[in-house]
Amino acid sequence: MLEDVRKPPARRRGFMAVAAVVVAGIAGTSLLAVLRQADLPQDLHQELAARVTVLLEQASPEEHHDHGHHFEEDAGQVICAVEPFGVAPEGAQDVTQVEWVYARHMCAITGPGTDWKTSVRVAGPLAVRFGHHAEVRVPPPGPGYPERVKELFPERLHDEAFAELDDGPALDTARERFEQAKQAK
Amino acid sequence: MKVMRSVALGVAAAFALIITSFVVPHAASAHGVTMFPGSRTFLCWQDGLRENGAIQPYNPACAAAVAQSGTTPLYNWFAVLRSDAAGRTVGYIPDGQLCSGGTGGPYDFSAYNAVRNDWPKTHLTSGANIQIRHSNWAHHPGTFDLYITKNGWNPNGPLGWGDLEKFAEVTDPPQSGAPGGLGYYYWNTTLPAGKSGDHILYIHWKRSDSNENFFSCSDVVFDGGNGEVTGVGPGGSSPGPTPTPTDEETPPPADGDCTATFRATDNGWAGHFQGEVTVTNTGDATINGWTVSWTYSGGQGFDGAPWNATLTGQPPNVVAKNASYNGQLAPNASTTFGFNATGSVPSPVPTLTCTSS
User: Fold this and answer.
1) What is the CATH number of the domain that holds B67?
2) Which of A102, A136, B199, B243 has its CA 20 to 30 A from that of B156?
């Protein structure tokens, strides 16, 4: 399963395609988004967003099936919007210095639902550790959720962790890609 | 929180969380809660869902539930379920947890058990006949048990099985709209007589092909209402005035053997309204299908799929055809279809054209 995640040529092509779209989309950063990302250098923000987006999207749907989930043939494609809001160690300026990235995400699947707005999805903050052994942590939903979020994220980032995704390039790009994927079905 | 220490375990566990939400609607299991009268999860989903796909509740009860448990359960509003329920009620779902179906489902909806008086409410008339609509996210046979809270129940205390009385059941009702979206099962039910004020309509859907069951709490108020919803959307944090039906069009001249009238109701939510179209067979012979069309001039749109009709033309040039079950109309017979809409109540109301087949 691990090799499936990291190595298949198809996936690599997928990575490049997704990354290109994500980076291109995020490159059209609005002023609002720039201000929101003030704590992260813009290039680093884009690179982290693209990497996490690909990581999340590349795990589906085949890996999901490997985990015992059974998508139908028309289950669709997972499309994610990712908005990094912090890193560890704090002050990292380059992706090679980043051990952890903290981000808001929204992942929707193109299969059910009628459009982006009503599609089935998950959303919230997550933490990703890069490196040879990638690691993704998502605070489980349900009662006690705020405490689990606080436990996962550094205190300096708690407000950001509870914030919603901005109406900005990450969402716009994901929505556009979602609609293109729906039309391609 | 469980810490994941390897790539395989980390990715697997992370995506188990992420993908569980995606997979549920696709797994070989039914899913659904009541859409009319709207269950807490359905109406909170409607309340909070923004155009960009984010959930940012207006209703304070919904907001509190989201703050307590995150948005992911609400994105899966149709999945208030227990896979091993097998028709069990008392002793299986603890009192005080009826609205979440306990805590053993794929999502923890415990936050939606909160005892509050500001959940979204549907206004109804005791003794009236209404059409129940229940999400058909996935199709499976089964029976729906309908309960209502007893007269004298305490709305300020946890809901228990002893507060409920069963008043109807239906097995394998018809459905409208495809699974995997906003389609629904539907059936007509006469609401219990002698009810007034706040109550909870509770529906327990028991699949007959598996042990999976679904649990829906719908907050209703018997005040002479006709299905209006309050407590949803901006400015809807408390029940507002009973919505007033607005313009109703005089039936236009017959175009073919049917006519259609348009009725719009301001539901108190700026930028949204509810619409209802009545189709009447004005000819001398039975018709076997109808098509109603109109043109919006004010940018109105649909918020979800209509019920009792199928859209074949999108705004501004709307074309709605009969559903599979209401196309046949005897002379002078009528049927209606409805929809939730975005935009302002059209004024003047659009001119409708009805053609029969």
Assistant:
1) 2.70.50.50
2) B243
Q: Tell me the count of A-B CB pairs closer than 8 A.
A: 170
Question: Which tens digits make up the pLDDT trace of B216-226?
Answer: 999 999 999 98
Please list every residue in chain A whose beta carbon sits closer than 8 Å to the beta carbon of residue B101: none
Instruction: Please say which residue of B173, B204, B236 terminates a domain.
Output: B236
Q: pTM score > 0.90 for this model? A: no
Q: Mutation target for B interface from A118, A132, A150, A151: give the one with most B CBs within 10 A.
A: A118
Instruction: Decide if B53 and A175 are in contact by the 8 Å CB cutoff.
Output: yes
Residues B209 and B177 in one domain: yes
Beta pairing class for B334-342 and B272-281: antiparallel
For chain B, what's the residue count?
A: 357
CB contact under 8 A, A142 and B73: yes
Residue B245 falls inside a structural domain = no
Cβ count within 10 A of residue A90: 10
Give the residue ranges of DSSP H helices in chain A.
Answer: 2-6, 9-27, 31-36, 42-58, 62-66, 145-152, 158-162, 169-184
Residue B184 and residue B86 in contact, taking contact as beta carbons nearer than 8 Å: no
Mean pLDDT of the A77-105 span: 93
Cβ contact, residue pair A140, B49, below 8 Å = no
Chain-chain contact of A136 with B4 (C-beta, under 8 angstroms): yes
Percent with pLDDT over 90 in chain B: 47
pLDDT tens-digit readout, B53-72: 889 999 999 999 999 999 98
Q: Which residue of B has its CA nearest to A122?
A: B72
Decide if pLDDT at A71 tops 80: no
Note whether A112 contacts B76, CB cutoff 8 Å: no
Facing A135 at nearest CB: one of B10, B54, B71: B10
Q: Which of A5, A28, A29 is nearest to A15 (CA)?
A: A5
pLDDT at A60: 52
Range of the domain at B318: 258-356
What is the domain count for chain B?
2
